[in-house]
Amino acid sequence: MKVRKAVIPVAGLGTRFLPASKAIPKEMLTIVDRPTIQYIVEEVVAAGIEQIILVTSQGKSAIENHFDYDFHLDAVLYEKKKTALLEEMRHLANLIDIVSVRQKKPLGLGHAIWSARNVVGNEPFVVLLGDDLVLSEQPCCKQMLNIFDEVKESVVAVQQVPKDETYQYGIVEGQHIRDRVIKIDRMVEKPAPGTTKSDMAIIGRYILQPEIFGLLEKTTPGHGGEIQLTDALLALSNQRGMYAYEFEGTRFDAGDKLGYLKAIIAFALRHPDIGENFSDHIKHVAAQL
Ligand code: UTP
Q1: What's the mean per-residue pLDDT of the chain?
Q2: Ligand 1 test: best mutation among 7, 8, 13, most atoms within 8 Å of CB?
Q3: Dihedral (Cα; 153, 156, 161, 167), 10-degree rounding
Q4: 289 belongs to a structural domain
Q5: What phi and psi values does residue 261 have, to the nearest 5 degrees?
Q6: Domain encompassing residue 100
Q7: One of this protein's GO BP terms (predicted)?
Q8: Which residue's alpha carbon is nearest to atom 23 within ligand 1?
Q9: What three-state secondary structure class fits 254?
Q10: Total structural domains in the chain?
Q11: Residue 256 CA: which ligand 1 atom is closest?
């Protein structure tokens, strides 16, 4: 079945980025010349997805406005004959069909995804976390859709992490069926040191079968009263099977201060307008350290 819809949860409180994220959603913080969320939406568009379901909450309307048509701005740019900018703004407003649903309380990622159930319906869908960026030749979402077409079951994106950092992630264990593709046997959320041999960590990209919604509904709240996605993922992998895909590219957790700064550097170095000058500047700074 063709994957047509992408769910992007952006309803979290973003406490790691306070005070910056107090009045501005962390997904709207800028990486060079566009907000984090725009890179994610562009990745989805490049993968051929037809509709995005944003899971939002109070105070996140700037995200919806960013992808909306702005009559006033349009008129001003037209009057001032700023044609290139005018075209860019119109293109942004027409990127893709975006609908939003509300997560009424920040009850965790699992609950955020569950909030999109009525709009997704009974079909497989992609999930991209609103603060997780992947820099790659082929969009990570497209890479995952190619694997989904092959295995026809849920796929989670994974990356190798240092052994002493596995406790920070959901870790998958299983057998390689070929290069970069693992059939999952077991999944452990934030494993205590020494409890898993695997160093394959789940990042913020998933393709999920719709049975996940029923499983999320049955999931009992865990730490902090939050409904964890990993518990339902584990149940889904036992029920239908699930694959982990070691994507090609570099992932940045832009919801974390250090991850955000690393993302800015990586994206700025590749930027067509400023990349070269920025690279010279970085070399100059590095030479002074
Ligand atoms: P994070 O783990 O980054 O959580 O969520 P957070 O609450 O936003 O941030 P911190 O940890 O307090 O700094 C990953 C993604 O899931 C969304 C977030 O908006 C983010 O894009 N999310 C998280 C929700 O939509 N709802 C939730 O209840 C939790």
Answers
A1: 95
A2: 13
A3: -100
A4: no
A5: -65, -40
A6: 5-282
A7: UDP-alpha-D-glucose metabolic process
A8: 12
A9: coil
A10: 1
A11: 13
256 lines ligand 1 (CB under 6 A): no
CA of 224 relative to ligand 1 center, distance in Å = 13
Indicate the pLDDT class of residue 280, thresholds 50, 70 and 90. Answer: very high
Confidence label for 193 from pLDDT (cuts 50, 70 and 90): confident
The CATH number assigned to the domain holding 132 equals: 3.90.550.10
Q: Is the predicted pLDDT of residue 223 greater than 80, yes or no?
A: no
Give the Cα separation of 58 and 50 in Å (integer): 26
| Closest to 161 measured CA to CA, from 171, 151, 152 | 171
Structural tokens at position 255: 């919801």
Joined together, the tokens standing for residue 91 give 């293109």
Residue 288 lies in a domain: no
Distance between CA atoms of 238 and 245, rounded to whole angstroms?
Answer: 17
Examine the pLDDT at 191 and tell me if it is beyond 80.
yes
Which is nearest to 241 in space by CA: 170, 159, 175, 169? 175
Give the HSE-up count for residue 167: Cα atoms under 13 Å, Cβ half-sphere: 5
